Amino acid sequence: MRVTKLSLTNFKPYATAEIDLRDGVTVIHGVNGSGKSSLLEAVFFALYGSKALEGTLDDVVTNGTEACEIDLIFTHQGETYELIRELKRSGERVSTRKCVLTGPDVTIEGARDVRTFVTELLRMDAEAFINCAYVQQGDVNKLINATPKQRQDMIDDLLQLGVLEEYRTRAGQARLGVEDVLGNTEGALQNIRNQIKTKEDTEPYARLNNVENELSDVTTRIENYEGEKQKAEKARDAAESTLSEYEEKQQRVASLTESIDGIQNQIESTAAERSTLKEQSTEHRAQIQQLSAQADRLRESLSKEVPTANIIEEYEQQLTENLDEIREKREELRIKQSAYKNQANALSEKATHLSERAETTETEVETLQEEIQSVTDQIKEQKERLETLKTERQSLSSRFDAAPIDSGSASSYVKEIQTQKEEQTTRKAELSATIESLTDAIEETEHLLAEGKCPECGQPVDGSPHVHDLSDDRERLSEYQRKKAAIEEKVSSLTTELAEAQKLVETESRIDEIETTITLLTERIDELAERRSQKEHQLNTKQDAIAEYRSQAESVSADAQTKQDQHAEVTAEISAFTDELSEIESERDQLTELSEITERQTELEERIERLTEKRSELQSRNDERREWLKQQRDERESLKEAVDERAIESAKEQKSNAEQYLEQVTEMLTQLTTKRDRLTSERGEITAEIEQLESLNKQQTQLQQRVDALSALRSETSDLESMYGEIRATLRQQNVETLERMVNEMFDLIYANDAYSHIELDGEYELSVFQKDGERLDPEQLSGGERALFNLSLRCAIYRLLAEGIDGAAPTPPLILDEPTVFLDTGHVDRLVQLVSEMRGFGVDQILIVSHDDKLIDAADDLVTVEKNPTTNRSTVNRADKPALSALQVQVGDD
Ligand SMILES: Nc1ncnc2c1ncn2[C@@H]1O[C@H](COP(=O)(O)OP(=O)(O)OP(=O)(O)O)[C@@H](O)[C@H]1O
Ligand SMILES: [Zn+2]
């Protein structure tokens, strides 16, 4: 098997990485912590899943990411397989989301199934893989420190010797199982043997023989007694039949006696019935006679002679017809009668109505007449008022004849006078003022003059020019006084005139008032007159109507009387018909009675006839009964004669004897039968015991056979078990020898030292190193470097053993070495390089080595460089076909 391609996503330091791997030696190099070991771990994890981890799934998912994917492609025995694993973080936990392995004609899903498949394919589980193919970093002591037992298990496992051990264990288990079954079977066999012994001790065959003899004896006796019993039964049955015959006859006699008594009773009761019937007939006849007398009386009272029933009916018919006819007529008359009555009533009602209307109208006429009178009175009154007003107007108008103005201008006249009066009054006041001041001036002047002074300047008047003016003034004053008197007179006359004018204004307004009233009165009078004429017209119309009503009422009354008379006439006619009807009805009733009597007579006669018939029928029935009576009496007589008293007595005796015997024999038979039954069941029991015994014998034989078979099987399984043990021991011995040889070869190859002669591996996988002087050393006593070399040679030896295989077709996974040079000096690194190329020679196709060593790098077919970005902390991987020496120098210097 070899890896061809590995792709990673978020695996440990790798964000994404992809690397193709080829056959030959591939060296992976890079600085510390760049991710080299992680690459190898990825391959291991891809193959085995969580079993390949020391920690948890959490460790492989790149910190801070959610999911991780590993895709591994590898080839094995010419086929290509792809294995994909996906992990997913959810919360705290990381779990496998997908795990699929696909190969030619195969798809495996699920971590567990994939691991199982890989384990089978590589013929090694995760632990075996670490022990053999994958030498992890710093893992030097693992195999050296292991106990021989652990080493043995590990190597057995790798070389598939474990299978043989498994087969041996299975054979051992099978042997134990067989032994269990054998033990049980032997126990069962012993148990059955004991049972058989117990049963045989009771001697069942001898007992059976005894019982059978006794049984045959009892059976013979039973048969004898049964024969006797049958004979006795026959005798008894014969006697019983004689007796029962006798009993039957007795019963027949008794039943005949009963029947005879019954018939006699019937005959007697029938005779009694007949005489009752006869009495009834006699009674009916008497009734018929009575009815005949009644009928005669009725006939006499009828108006017509009705000798026969036929005629009665005819006459009755005729009367009924007459009745109907008269009733019909009367009915017609009744209709007329009620019509007349109704008409008379209606007419007289109408007459009354008319009279009432006439009276009402008369009342209305009176009212109208009163109203007309009242209107006439009003008219008269109004006219008188009109005349009075006209006279007043005449007298008022005449006042203007002497007046200075015409009627209608009084108001303006008053105003005119008032104006004049005011003017004169004003003038008078002015004049009065003038007169007063002039009077004052005159008095002053006179005073001054008296003192001799000038009235004008107050100077002494000698020679004054104004002295003559005083006389003028006096003249003017009197003039003024005269004018004033004239004005005073004028004012007084104007006052008188004004009073007169004001009176005229009053008169004028009164005249206006009167004229308005006159107009109103005239209109009112006209209106009243109109109303009166209307009422007079109404009055005339109503008076005409009254006359009309009266004449109509008279004529309607006359009609009503006529109808009344007609009604009386019809009523009389009806009563005549009613009388006639009652006569006819009474006649008809009599006729009905007569016909009823006749019917009753006929009915009675028919009854008599029926009674007679019944009687004769009863007579003949009794005759018949008498006949039966005679027959039954005869039979009874003959039965009584047929009984033989002596034969009956002997039968009774025979029966009693037989019964006594039967009782005894039955008792005997019961005892014998009980005994036979007991013997039969005893025989059954013994037979069953014998059957059981025989079946036990059969079982014993079978069990014996089984025990024999199981014993044979036990020795076979035991042989098988030891055979597998021996094969394994042989194979292991062979392996131990081969492995010892190979370890020596490998150790010789890698360790150049004269101190050690050889390594020994004993049958128990105990490892020992021998010095040249023959001294034995425990491998743990070796130095660190020696132990690393010893470890490598042991691993390579195991790998070679595996690669060469037992049957030559073992799988060889890549040989994986993580930092194998750590403890080695330069010389030994050279030898390691040689070992690696030797391993290629031994048929190891693919070797993956993590190393910084130049020599190993030089020896590599392929070089893989791993780098880590210091900023992102993410690793990358690259393959260089042929490494540049300078670059390698730097790498080496780093370590
Ligand atoms: N789950 C993880 N997520 C991120 N980085 C991780 C995770 N697990 C390990 N690492 C980182 O991967 C690196 C370890 O890688 P690895 O052991 O493969 O290195 P190396 O190249 O073999 O180193 P050395 O030369 O020392 O053996 C460390 O730097 C570690 O921090
Ligand atoms: Zn490392």
Automatic annotation (TrEMBL):
ATP binds at K12, N32, G33, S34, G35, K36, S37, S38, Q137. Zn(2+) binds at C454, C457. InterPro entries: AAA_GajA/Old/RecF-like (IPR041685), DSB_repair_ATPase (IPR053480), P-loop_NTPase (IPR027417), Rad50_ATPase_archaeal (IPR022982), Zn_hook_RAD50 (IPR013134). The keyword DNA-binding does not apply. Keywords: ATP-binding, Coiled coil, DNA damage, DNA repair, Hydrolase, Metal-binding, Nucleotide-binding, Zinc. Residues 407-506 form the Zinc-hook domain. Binds 1 zinc ion per homodimer. Its cofactor is Zn(2+). The two conserved Cys that bind zinc constitute the zinc-hook, which separates the large intramolecular coiled coil regions. The 2 Cys residues coordinate one molecule of zinc with the help of the 2 Cys residues of the zinc-hook of another Rad50 molecule, thereby forming a V-shaped homodimer. Homodimer. Forms a heterotetramer composed of two Mre11 subunits and two Rad50 subunits. NCBIfam families: Rad50_Halo. This is DNA double-strand break repair Rad50 ATPase.
